[in-house]
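Let us practice reading a record.
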Amino acid sequence: MRVLLVHTGGTLMMQATGTGPLAPGRYAADLLGELPVLRKIADVETRILYQLDSSDIQPEHWVEVARTVHGALDDYDGVVVVHGTDTMAYTASALAFLLPELDRPVVLTGSQRPLEAVRSDARQNLVDAFELATSRIPEVGLCFASKMLRGCRATKLDAWALDAFGSPSLPPLVKLGLGMEVAPHVLAPRARTSPFDGRIDPHVLEVRLFPGLDPRLLRGALAAGVHGLVVSAFGSGNVPALGRSLIPVLDSARSMDIPVVVVSQCPRAHVDLLRYEGGARAAEAGAIGAGDMTAEAALTKLMVALGRADEGGRVRSARRAFEHAWVGEMSENVPRLPAAGARLP
C-alpha cells in the first residue's frame, strides 16, 4: 500500500518557542523516525505544501491542496493531509466539493498538542489516519480522536479537549477501537471521469443573526461587492421580519443576483423555511435553505457553486447547487429548499 502525506502545517508539527505561543516551525523531516510504525502500515511519500497556522489558510490553498491530491490519486492508495485544527472543517468541506469523484480515501488530521510534546494526541491521530487511508472508504474524511467524520459534515466543537471535532447531524463514518467499525452510510466509490475543476469564488460573507442586528450593515456588504451570503439564522431558519426586518435586505440581494443561503445556528437542526413566518417570508424573498448542513459546508459549497456560475446567474446557480447533496453534505429527507417565489401559507 502507498500513502501520500500532504503537509500544510498546523499544531501537529509546531514547536514551542520558550514560554511564548506555539508557532509554525521547521518541518520535522524525520516524521517516520518519530513514528516508525507508519512504515508498517504503508510506503509513505511526503509533500510539504505549506507550513502554516491554519488561521492563515485561504481558499487558494484549498484549491492547491485539492489539485495536488487529484493529481496523485492514480499513484497512491490513499492520501493523508496534515492540517491545523482551527480551520480544518472548512478545508475538509472544500476538498469534498472540489474532489467529488473519489474511489479511495482522503483523510485530514492534525492534533491539539504538537508531536514533540510528551503527552500528545498527534501520534494516535497520525496512526489512525494512515490506517484509514489504506481502507476502502472513498470519502474526504476528518480523522480525530479515534473516529473518522465525513469532511463536509464536521465542525470543531472544542478548543481544549483532545476530542475536538463532532458531526452533529451525521454519525461518524468510522469508529476505531479494537477493530474498525464502518458505518453503513459511507459513500460508494465514484469513478474519476472529469478533469480537476478548481474554480472557486471567495467573495462570500457569513453573518450570524442576533437580536439588534442593523440591516443597514448587510446592505453595506451587498454594496461592497459580496457575491453570496450565508445567514446563520435562528432555530429552523427563522429571521426577523418586524423590527429591523431582514426581508428587505433579502429582496435587495435577489435583485442584485446575490444568493442568500440559510443555515441554522443550532448544532443539531435542519432549516425548514416554511415552519415560521419569518423564515417563510425569507423564502418568499428568495432565500435558499441549506437543510442540516454545517455553516462550513454551506460556505464552501456556495464558493464552489459561484465559481462555476453560468449565464443563468449566481442565484440560479446557487439554488441549483443546493437542491441536492453532492457528496453527502446534507440529508435528502429533510425540508430544505422552497420553490422560488414561495408564498406564505
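A brief commentary: The first helix runs from residue 31 to 34.
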